[in-house]
Amino acid sequence: MIVVGPVESLLIGLAALVSGVLGGMLGMAGGIFIVPALTLGFGLDMTHAAGASLVSVIACSCGSAASAMENRLTNVKLGVLLEIGTTLGALTGVFLGDFLSESVLYLLFAAILLLSAHQMAVKRGADETTRDPGVPSDPWGTRLGLNSTYPDAIAGREVAYEVHRVGLGLALMYGAGAMSSLLGIGSGVLKVPAMDAAMRLPIKVSSATSNFMIGVTATTSAGIYYARGDVLVEFAAPVALGSLVGAYLGARILMRTSSRRLRSLFIVVLLAIAARMFMTAIQGPTSVGRG
Question: What share of the chain is helix, strand, coil (3-state, %, to 5)?
Answer without folding.
Answer: 70, 5, 25
